[in-house]
């Protein structure tokens, strides 16, 4: 059975094998924190590119990924590139832990009696893992997007003579809970589910396939060498990210609570898809696609690296079942 880099079983002191859930959760959390800290500025640029709409005369605030990066840095400085990172780092730990641990859990239980895991079951395991994570992903993405897009909205408001008050993730969350209850934090759940489930359906089987092609650490081991797991994570992550980018654009636009004056409002996934297609064309669904590929590739490469190193196993004193 192809795995995510580390075997899903561990060996206890008595020599019996069991599914080790705790190290998967710890590894996922560590991978999330390290990965997000490295790629967050690019994620911010991705969000702003996806949210900007083309004006009636073709005018737009950012002409490219590099242009957006330069303008954001010039206007908001180094720390401005990390707007919204606090809430993302706080919630990425449970989000990545759920995603990676749930996939391993479902792979473990969907493995056939003869020890194989057909591609359809790999896709099912990935999809179920993506479904599990939206309980954390939706509010995390909602709050992150408000913070990341605040600079763009404020800059365009200033251009028409208006000044918007500064906001924080806490103030946004409290206002949503006060006015709409806890469900206010789950705006865009449908689009988030479309993106995360489809991403996981593509990513996990693709990673397992690529990872299985590389050399093993030891004879008879199921674990690939470090560089193979890292590159497999990068390749699978970037390809899956591009494949589901249209869903990410829809999710980002639905979760942007504040719009620039004159920008379209959307009432659900179907309405967002219809209006975007009508006014901006099919290419709008691939806005920020390159950014997202650049963000996701190292994020998942790092995740597989952490799994390979067995950080949690070392901390918890758990011996891998492969060794």
From TrEMBL:
It is found in: Mitochondrion inner membrane. One of its GO terms (molecular function) is symporter activity. The chain crosses the membrane at residues 20-42, 224-244, 293-318. One of its GO terms (biological process) is malate-aspartate shuttle. It is a multi-pass membrane protein. The keyword Metal-binding does not apply. The keyword Transport applies. Belongs to the mitochondrial carrier (TC 2.A.29) family. Responsible for the transport of glutamate from the cytosol into the mitochondrial matrix with the concomitant import of a proton (symport system). This is Mitochondrial glutamate carrier 2. It comes from Anopheles minimus.
